[in-house]
Design goal:
The structure is a single chain. The chain has six helices and five strands. By secondary structure, it is of the alpha/beta class. It has one domain (about 5-170): TIM Barrel. α6 (about 145-150) links the parallel β4 (about 135) and β5.
Length: about 170
C-alpha cells in the first residue's frame, strides 16, 4: 500500500509485491516512469471527486496523504492530486489498473454509500474507464459496503490485508 511516493521507496523490493496506490496523489504520477518499470502488477485506486481539474497547476512538493486530504477538505484545492489525463495514461499501461476508492473519500456511512458509489461509477463511466477493483477508503471494510460493490460488478476488493510501504523499511 503506497500513498505518497518518494525516491527512497525505489530502494525497497517493490517487485516482490502487487503494488496498490491509494488516492491518486500527484506524486504517484511524478514517479510514474519509475513505477511503470517495476515488473509487478500495479493498482491505482482513485477517489473520483478529488481528481484535479485539467487546468489546475499541480503541486509536486512532497506531502503525506493525510496532509493532502486535510488540505483538500479545508480548501477544496486539488493540486496534490492527478488529473483525468494522467489517470488515463496510467490506465493505458498494461501492467497497471485503475480501481475505485469511492467518490468523496469519506469514512463509511451507511446512508451515503449508495450515492457515493453511484457517483464514483458514473464518473468512471464518463471518463471511459472500466473498473473491477475497489479499495476501501481508510481500509474500512464493511459487509454492507462489500455487498453493494459486488452488486455493481466490482470483483476485487482491497483493504486491511495490504502491507504499508513504510513497514517494508529495515
Amino acid at each position: 500500500m503506497i500513498h505518497e511516493v518518494d525516491q527512497w521507496m525505489f530502494t525497497l523490493p517493490l517487485e516482490d509485491y502487487h503494488l496498490t496506490f491509494d488516492d491518486g496523489l500527484y506524486s504517484q504520477f511524478v514517479y510514474f516512469d519509475q513505477i511503470r518499470e517495476l515488473n509487478t502488477t500495479k493498482s491505482f485506486f482513485i477517489s473520483t471527486a478529488i481528481v484535479a481539474e485539467p487546468d489546475c497547476e499541480q503541486n509536486s512538493d512532497f506531502i503525506t496523504c493525510n496532509d493532502a486530504h486535510e488540505h483538500y477538505f479545508k480548501t477544496n484545492d486539488k493540486s496534490y492530486y492527478m488529473n483525468w489525463e494522467q489517470i488515463k495514461e496510467i490506465d493505458s499501461d498494461c501492467s497497471c489498473e485503475i480501481g475505485g476508492h469511492s467518490h468523496n473519500h469519506n469514512r463509511y456511512n451507511r446512508t451515503k454509500i449508495f450515492k457515493d458509489t453511484r457517483e464514483m461509477l458514473e464518473e468512471f463511466d464518463r471518463q471511459s474507464i472500466t473498473i473491477d477493483s475497489f479499495c476501501f477508503p481508510y481500509n474500512d471494510e464493511y459487509v454492507e459496503y462489500e455487498a453493494l460493490l459486488k452488486s455493481k460488478g466490482i470483483k476485487h476488493l482491497y483493504g486491511k490485508e495490504r502491507v504499508d510501504v513504510y513497514d517494508l523499511q529495515c
